[in-house]
TrEMBL record:
Organism: Dorcoceras hygrometricum
Alphabetized Gene3D superfamilies for the sequence: Ammonium transporter AmtB like domains
Keywords noted in UniProt: Ammonia transport, Membrane, Transmembrane, Transmembrane helix, Transport
Stretches with biased composition (Polar residues): 473-489
Transmembrane segments: 30-52, 64-83, 140-159, 171-198, 204-222, 234-254, 266-285, 297-315, 321-341, 362-387, 407-428
Protein name per UniProt: Ammonium transporter
Length: 489
């Protein structure tokens, strides 16, 4: 017994010393894993519920499944090759070398982020390496859920008509050739990273790219049916709000996790995120009341989204007063582009962007990036940014240069996504149609998946009393009453 007792502690100590090395910051690691979980919950179940509820009943299953499939596909692609393309060794100034992030040797005894170190000719370092003190596995998973939600947001432009087989091809291709370029350029040590373009948590990498790629893909896929474009009511407003609520609360991890540490920046980011989102929601709602005489629940959700998106590129780098200004603008500028410009610009009218992702993500994301170039506070910048002496335009000095950097950086993301998304869609079109057949477009989920969201009948389908057991929308109130009476009897 005594011999065994002496062996057990030594074995335990050897195990714990390997599992918890001296360099590991358990607090930061715990926050990073919590943040990753919150961001993951934004997609599953958040956007799965939101997409499945905000569309017509006949598209509920298909819309939710597009989100669910994208999440699963991105996870596998990410750990097999895409993570290293985003955060690995440099292949090109805007792209990393592909490789797996699976082996145990990559997950233990290494600091997380292998960002490229940029040196001047005299040997001095301008852009230092980011060195959070936790396993690389934490970073791989944290960045994975960001990549996943980007593709899911893009799907919002394509709901209600994209061929599911085409979508299954599109996800890995777009992740590989579009998302990884933006991520490496701005976060992983690429040329925009070294130049000092600010994207605190994905206003450009995630939202601008998904909004531009979404409307570009929508152009190539084509529109929904005429009936769906004219009338596309949510099938469950309360569930839509539940999904939106998951999204809002999950943003604490979205923005709070991006300093890669539980520090001052993370606290500021979480507070500013909620300030901007609340302000934007209120502004959008009041604009709806002023111009349409009714507060719209969908409009409030859109205002919430634009506020969350707008604050993202500068969440931990601006003061609270700036977050309020950004909320006012994010609740009004995208509202104006969606409600006014969209209805007058023939190009936007011709492209069927189902959920208006261009307005809520591309416009709001670019707006947030530009406003970050104005309001980024120097002391907060020094806690986060790789390039020294960074500051927003309102703080003078080189602030005007920062604004220019923000505009150019966003322009690169826009141009790359338009070109690459178009190429991907054209390539897929040679293998399978991008748009569903007309019969599937008329029927919806039952034709595409053989499944329906609710055991109810509606949405303009051809009425079959033996199958649906309810009343047709085309019947008179008397006919509906008679059927209802028969069912009760």
């Amino acid at each position: 017994m005594a011999a065994n007792a002496s062996v057990v502690p030594s074995a335990y100590q050897a195990y714990t010393s390997a599992a918890v090395p001296d360099w590991l910051n358990k607090g930061d690691n715990a926050w990073q894993m919590t943040s990753a979980t919150l961001v993951g919950l934004q997609s599953v179940p958040g956007l799965v519920i939101l997409y499945g509820s905000i569309v017509k009943k006949k598209w509920a299953v298909n819309s939710a499944f597009m989100a669910l499939y994208a999440f699963a596909a991105v996870v596998i692609c990410w750990v097999v090759w895409a993570y290293k393309m985003s955060f690995g060794e440099e292949l090109l100034p805007f792209w990393g070398k592909a490789g797996p992030a699976l082996g145990q040797k990559f997950l233990i005894n290494q600091a997380a982020l292998p960002a490229t170190v940029h040196k001047h000719k005299d040997g001095t370092v301008e852009t230092a390496e980011a060195t959070p003190y936790y396993p690389m596995a934490s970073m791989v998973w944290f960045q994975c859920v960001f990549a996943a939600i980007t593709v899911i947001l893009l799907a919002g432009s394509l709901l209600g008509r994209m061929n599911i087989k085409a979508w299954m091809m599109f996800v890995p291709l777009w992740l590989t050739f579009s998302y990884t370029v933006g991520a490496f350029s701005l976060w992983g040590g690429g040329f925009l990273f070294h130049w000092g373009v600010i994207d605190y948590s994905g206003g450009y990498v995630i939202h601008l790219s998904s909004g531009i790629a979404g409307i570009t893909a929508a152009y190539w896929v084509g529109p929904r049916t005429k009936a769906d474009r004219e009338r596309f009511p949510p099938n469950n407003v309360l569930l839509m709000l539940a999904g939106a609520g998951c999204w809002w609360m999950g943003w604490a991890g979205f923005n709070g996790g991006d300093p890669y540490s539980a520090n001052i920046d993370s606290s500021m980011a979480v507070l500013n995120t909620n300030i901007c989102a609340a302000t934007s929601l209120l502004v959008w709602t009041w604009l709806d009341v002023i111009f349409f005489n009714k507060p719209s629940v969908i409009g409030a959700v859109q205002g919430m989204i634009t506020g969350l998106v707008c604050i993202t590129p500068g969440a931990g780098l601006v003061q609270g007063w700036a977050a309020i200004i950004m909320g006012i603008l994010s609740g009004s500028v995208p509202w104006f582009t969606m409600m006014i410009i969209h209805k007058k610009w023939l190009l936007l009218q011709a492209i069927d962007d189902t959920l208006g992702v261009f307005h809520t993500h591309a416009v709001a994301g670019y707006l947030g990036g530009i406003l970050t170039g104005l309001f980024a506070e120097p002391i907060l910048c020094s806690l986060f940014l790789p390039v020294t002496n960074s500051r927003g335009g309102v703080y003078g000095g080189v602030g005007g240069v920062q604004l220019l950097k923000q505009i150019v950086g966003g322009g690169f993301i826009i141009g790359w996504n338009i070109v690459v998304t178009s190429i991907i869609c054209v390539v897929i079109r040679f293998m399978t149609p991008l748009r569903m057949p007309e019969e599937e477009l008329l029927i919806g989920d039952d034709a595409v998946h053989g499944e329906e969201a609710y055991a109810l009948w509606g949405d303009g389908e051809k009425y079959d009393s033996t199958r649906h057991g309810g009343a047709s929308d085309d019947q008179t109130p008397l006919q509906k009453s008679s059927i209802g009476a028969t069912q009760v009897v």
